[in-house]
Design a protein that fits this description.
Layout: H1 2-18, E1 21-22, H2 24-31, H3 35-56, H4 58-69, H5 73-101, H6 103-121, H7 127-141, H8 144-152, H9 160-188, H10 191-198, H11 200-205, H12 216-221, H13 225-239, E2 247-248, H14 265-295, H15 301-337, H16 343-359, H17 361-375, H18 377-392, H19 401-429, H20 435-462, H21 466-486
Parallel strand pairs: 1-2
Helix pairs in contact: 2-13, 3-8, 3-9, 4-5, 5-6, 5-7, 5-20, 6-7, 6-10, 9-10, 9-16, 9-17, 9-19, 15-16, 15-19, 15-20, 15-21, 16-19, 17-18, 17-19, 18-19, 18-21, 19-20, 20-21
Length: 497
């Protein structure tokens, strides 16, 4: 009897051991941030450098093309508008493709599109050809949020905020690099060289695509548990760490009941795959409609609608401040004394001002890094939005050039910090199955703000209505800060699934 009782206890303990499971978050927490994530950071960061350079390029391309091809002011502004329109379409499209066909698929296709057509646009024989090619470059650049989400899905929850801020430095690197490149190239060569050189970061990504891993969260969400485990094992080897004991599972509620115990781990995986087969089949049939229904479901509706507005306001303010930097001083002089400045002097000021305000993003990122994992996402976003609003306030009246530059420097720093936390917060709110789609739609709505802001930042200023223009920015930022307070969830330290 003692022998039988001991054998039974041994079998029961062995079965319990075989049933141990762990999630992706458990594995990431144990392994920590190591060499593997550093490589993912470098690849995704280069994608953001490429996007930042293509966006900053819009500040320099229009004036030089207008001069060479004798374009009207409307045709010049259309060069920027078509890129934002392409980014709007691309942000939504790439997000949906990423959730349906994988993060790596988007990384490859968008990089090919941006690099190839970015280089071809440098060879454009006429304005119409350049317009079409830049539109498709905008579609490719719209994938930037997928690079960010892909990186975040490899980062442990405990320090995800800090690493997202570090990741955002790649955007600042891109803006400073493009401003420096334009300053050098446009004075010595032509705008065609600038377009070609701006496409280089995307070309650099292509040789390394073969070694990029798929997101283990995406693989789990699509029942590819064996491949997800293989990615985590590869990560553990690179980080010289060990995976948790047991079998990888997607959600706690999908753990197999103890009645179905078998000595083979593969049986657990097959059961989970069977549990999700019907759900995935329904999702594949319903497509975009199903994703939108989930984003606007009872649990996510409030977060989704508030994110849409804050993304719009953040983009409106970010691009608006960039335009204010290059326009405000000259417009003040023009409105007050009717002086006309030479084009060469105006362009010189544009390069200098853009370079200086690009540097302003660094202190904004450092500030957000210090606050985000201590103060929380919501509070940090709210404070930075209100601080940006405060910096812009004195500009309702004409100020001297030094004070104006200082205020815009502070506003750019706070705006960049707030946008960075927003780009961290949005992927943390949504579940893996609709994460890229949700962030993509929010990003697309944000691009509308990028299209609308020139009407305020340039149109009102050119009409000598500085006070009205600044008050519009103040109102948008104030409402964005209130919206951040109303977010229903604080995601600091929260698992992404």
């Amino acid at each position: 009897m003692e022998f039988l009782r001991g054998a039974f206890d041994f079998a029961e303990s062995a079965g319990a051991a075989e049933m141990e499971t762990y999630t992706t978050d458990d594995a990431l927490t144990i392994m920590g941030f190591g060499k593997f994530q550093a490589l993912v950071l470098a690849y995704a960061g280069m994608g953001w450098v490429a996007e930042a350079m293509e966006v900053m390029l819009l500040s320099f391309l229009g004036p030089v093309v207008r001069e060479e091809w004798n374009l009207s002011p409307q045709d010049e502004s259309l060069l920027s508008s078509v890129v934002f329109a392409g980014m709007l379409i691309g942000a939504f499209t790439w997000g949906f493709i990423s959730d349906r066909y994988g993060r790596r698929t988007v990384l490859l296709l968008s990089t090919l599109l941006t690099s190839g057509l970015g280089f071809l646009s440098a060879l454009s024989p006429n304005y119409l050809c350049l317009l079409v090619l830049r539109f498709f470059v905008g579609i490719g650049v719209g994938s930037g949020h997928v690079f960010a989400s892909w990186f975040l899905e490899f980062v442990p929850a405990g320090n995800r905020g800090t690493w997202m801020v570090i990741f955002s430095f790649f955007w600042t690197i891109g803006t400073v690099l493009e401003a420096s490149l334009a300053w050098i190239v446009l004075s010595a060569l032509s705008w065609r060289w600038l377009l070609a050189l701006s496409a280089l970061p995307c070309f650099i990504l292509l040789p390394f695509f073969r070694i990029t891993p798929e997101s283990p969260r995406y693989l789990c969400a699509h029942n590819r548990m064996s491949k997800a485990t293989a990615v985590l094992e590869r990560m553990a080897n690179a980080n010289q760490a060990a995976l948790p004991q047991g079998v990888l599972t997607y959600h706690g509620e999908t753990k197999t009941d103890s009645i179905t115990r078998t000595p083979e781990d593969e049986h657990l995986i097959s059961i989970r795959e069977k549990e999700h087969t019907v759900v995935n089949a329904l999702c594949s049939q319903s497509g975009v409609t199903d994703a939108l229904r989930k984003l606007l479901s009872h649990n996510l509706r409030r977060s989704t609608l508030l994110l849409w507005f804050v993304f719009y306001a953040s983009s409106f303010a970010y691009y608006g401040i960039a335009l204010l930097t290059s326009q405000l001083s000259d417009v003040n002089r023009s409105c007050s004394s009717d002086l006309i400045f030479e084009l060469q002097q105006k362009d010189g000021n544009l390069y200098k001002d853009t370079f200086i305000t690009s540097l302003a993003e660094a202190p904004g990122l450092i500030l957000s890094a210090l606050l985000v994992d201590w103060f929380g996402r919501k509070a940090t976003m709210c404070c930075l939005m209100f601080a940006c609003c405060a910096f812009l306030g004195p500009l309702v009246l004409h100020q001297n050039e030094l004070f104006t530059t200082t205020l815009l420097f502070g506003a750019r720093a706070c705006g960049t910090g707030g946008t960075t936390i927003l780009c961290l917060y949005a992927p943390e709110v949504y579940p893996t199955s609709v994460r890229s789609t949700g962030v993509g739609i929010a990003t697309a709505i944000g691009k509308i703000g990028g299209v609308v802001c020139p009407l305020v930042a340039v149109g009102m200023l050119r009409s000598c209505h500085q006070m009205a223009a600044i008050l519009v920015f103040e109102l948008v930022l104030l409402l964005a800060g209130v919206a951040c307070i109303l977010f229903p969830v604080e995601t600091k330290g929260r698992e992404m699934d």
